[in-house]
Amino acid sequence: MKLYEYEAKEIFAQHGIPVPEGKVITDPDEIEGVMYPLVLKAQVLVGGRGKAGGVKIVENIGEAKEAAEMMLSMDIKGIPVKKLLVYPAVDIQKEYYLGFVVDRNSRRVVAIASSEGGVDIEEVAEKSPEKIAKLEIDPLLGLKSYHTVELGKQIGLEGKTLLDFSRIALRLYKICEEYDAELVEINPLALSEEGFSAVDAKLNVDDNALYRQKFKPKEEEYTELERMAKKAGLSYVSLDGDIAIIGCGAGLVMASLDLIQKRGGRPANFLDVGGGANAENMKQALEIVTRQKGLKSIFVNIFGGITRCDQIADGIVEFGPEIPLSVRMMGTNEEEGKKILRENGYSVSDSMAEAAQKAVELARA
Ligand code: GDP
Ligand code: MN
User: Fold this and answer.
1) Per the residue annotation, which of 4, 97, 179, 346 is the catalytic one?
2) What's the pTM?
3) Do 205 and 226 have their domain in common?
4) Using CA atoms, how far apart are residues 249 and 5, in angstroms rounded to an integer?
5) 211 Cα: distance to centroid of ligand 2 (angstroms)
6) How confident is the model over 118-134, as pLDDT tens digits?
7) Is the pLDDT reported for residue 178 higher than 80?
8) Which ligand is the nearest neighbour of the Cα of 199?
9) 288: part of which helix (H) or strand (E)?
10) Is 150 labeled as catalytic in the residue annotation?
11) How much is the CA Rg of the chain, to the nearest whole Å?
């Protein structure tokens, strides 16, 4: 789960990381008694707001209201802007990067620092990898000040600045642990006359740890269909193609996506009905995927184990999708399932490749 910049900054401040003192507004009229130059920032759960026009620095109240009006009526990467964070602009001398991320390869949290802040860290990694310092953290030992001092040295810091950086890094790691973060990031970590401050803040909490965190789930992080699926207990992700994919088991659904893609089709979604899905679950799954606009065909890929193929077939027939459908069915009650589908005029095969091919052809027709 992603936190908003202003939420992350609140947590950073509570943990002693310097953050520009700001205010969240939802209406341009709320900009009052602030200092200029003033930064206005769209609060949306996507990165790269700067490039998308979601960050503005203004010099007076007139400009501020005009910018706020404009920003509160815009979309960033498809997400409407409803809140702005405003704070007096920091007079930045240099921008650094500091972050902690769960690295699946090393199975550890890795600290990442760079003297090239303010831009995408992926971009720095590509263009000038020598400007990135990395440190794998031993979970038993934890992060020590000799680590963070070394990290700071590697990005060219020294003296008091180095010690300040080291302190911020230790605090940020503490947040990473305490909030079960997948990613916690300050980009840019801005250096000014007054020292370092976190001008931007990112904190993504691992969804698997939400049960022990106190956050309320964020509705706005999901599309309407994703929300519907959540309610129905189905794993669903919206994609941008035109062939809906329904399968049982995440691995099988992933394989189905790959297969469709390989045959030249474009998956419209990922939907896992889970093990032991019945006719009702199948109906709900169809209900959700068929709501997607521009859908051309549906690929249902079922390996019957606990799941019974005849139940899946019943669900399909009862729902009766208007969009052409290709089913692959194998396993428990396979023959019964196929019979039901064939009797009702649906295309069914026990070969995954064949059924996927058919789904792609149906989408093209
Ligand atoms: P992002 O584009 O979503 O990562 O948003 P950021 O909060 O990182 O802002 C983008 C850029 O705006 C930063 O890299 C800075 O260059 C600039 N910026 C943001 N806040 C300030 C500020 O207080 N002072 C100055 N001078 N620039 C700022
Ligand atoms: Mn940023």
Assistant:
1) 97
2) 0.78
3) no
4) 35
5) 28
6) 988 999 999 999 999 99
7) yes
8) 1
9) helix 279-289
10) no
11) 25
The answer on 112 and 48 residing in a single domain is no
The structural domain count of the chain equals 3
Q: Do the strands 79-80 and 181-192 form a parallel or antiparallel pair, or are they unpaired? A: unpaired
Domain co-membership, 229 together with 348: yes
Determine contact, residues 57/39, Cβ cutoff 8 Å: yes
Residue 227 sits at the vertex; the CA angle it makes with 358 and 185, to the nearest 5 degrees, is: 105
Of 185, 236, 334, 346, the active-site residue reads 185
Q: Do 317 and 230 fall within a single domain? A: yes
Following DSSP, what letter does each residue of 183-229 receive, concatenated?
A: EEEEEEEEEETTEEEESS-EEEE-GGGGGGS-PPP-GGGS-HHHHHH
Q: Cα(22)–Cα(224) distance, rounded to whole angstroms?
A: 31
Q: Which long-range contacts (CB under 8 A, 24 or more apart) does 118-125 make?
A: 118/187, 118/188, 120/47, 120/48, 121/97, 121/187, 124/97
Does 328 map to a domain? Answer: yes
Q: How far is the CA of 254 from the centre of ligand 2 (A)?
A: 32
One domain, residues 265 and 359: yes
Pull the structure tokens for residue 171: 């605090």
Hey, is 338 helix, strand or coil? helix
Mean pLDDT (whole number) for 22-28: 96
Mutate to test the pocket of ligand 1, among 55, 91, 119 (most ligand atoms within 8 A of CB): 55
Provide the pLDDT confidence category of residue 275 given band limits of 50, 70 and 90.
confident
Whether 162 and 247 share a structural domain: no
Tracing tokens 């009229």 back to the chain, one arrives at: 29
Point out the ligand 1 atom lying closest to the alpha carbon of residue 51.
2
Angle between helix axes 159-178 and 5-14 (nearest 10 degrees) is 110
Asked if 348 contacts 304 with a C-beta cutoff of 8 angstroms, the reply is: no
Domain containing 277 equals: 222-364
- What's CA 156's distance to the chain center, in Å? 32
- Which of 212, 240, 264 is the endpoint of a domain? 212
Asked if residue 188 and residue 124 are part of one domain, the reply reads yes
